[in-house]
Amino acid sequence: MFSYRHAFHAGSHADILKHLTLIHLVSYLQEKPVALTMVDTHAGAGIYNLQDGFAAVSKEAEGGIFRLLKYQEAGNQIPESIQKYIDCIQSENSSGEMNVYPGSPFILARMLRPQDRLKLFELHPKEIDILRHNVGELSCAKQIDVYDVDSFKRLKGLLPPPSRRGLILIDPSYEDKQDYRHLEIALEEAMQRFPTGCYAIWYPMLARRESAELPDRLKKICTTHKRSWLHTELRVENTPGERRLQASGMFIINPPWTLEKNLAEALPIITKALSVGNGAQYLLKSFEAKN
Ligand code: SAM
With 90 as the cut, is the pLDDT of residue 194 above it? Predict the structure, then answer.
């Protein structure tokens, strides 16, 4: 427990899938002026140095954000949704160099309107200090609460949000295989209190039973609660024995109707831009519940 540091994975292909989806969800939910509460159940440190420390050691951003930028610099056209994601990442890099990569807390914080609130959970004893410091530097810090408690146990206590408009990002590290079970329990509890919330769950595609079964288990929860879902996966490589993460997925409960079209435009380009060898592919499926 607590060996996971997100800095090793900052700006990777998995972050691109997660953060591109997240930006679209927030933009859609902010189309109405009513206050939006955003919860990031697994926050990490908030923002990461790509030139130094863990990220510079792992170099995962080379196969992620840097590869995407090279694809664009080579003159390839990219759709607006990908441009919006790139603009968001570049806005943290005023020098023009890609020195830092914002994690989900910074991406969400930068999108806060005065009426919105952001709730961040982080359990790692070192990450929480870095997160608190980073959040303290933001001009919108007063709109953000940081909790150093187990989000699987405490998420339900924040739901439903006062305005009944909420986005919940659930992005565990899955370093403990119990995380899969804990996620399901927390999600069940959350959906009982707040069935109309938008839930965005990220997961790694690993050669592990719990990981392979997760999408079907999430679909079952949606069936029980009569909720719509969207399921997407991005594989950038298919090399047996490779230790690096080669694929990940996002499962969205109560997705906005615009998300599928948005991802249908973005995913072929992202897959092409990030592919290593011939094994790159994406998946995009959805189900609309009749209520
Ligand atoms: N959401 C971040 C982003 O996109 O930039 C990345 C988060 S990282 C995948 C997962 C984080 O969750 C780690 O920093 C880990 O310490 C933290 N964590 C693990 N279990 C937790 C729990 N039960 N409650 C809150 N945080 C937890």
Answer: yes
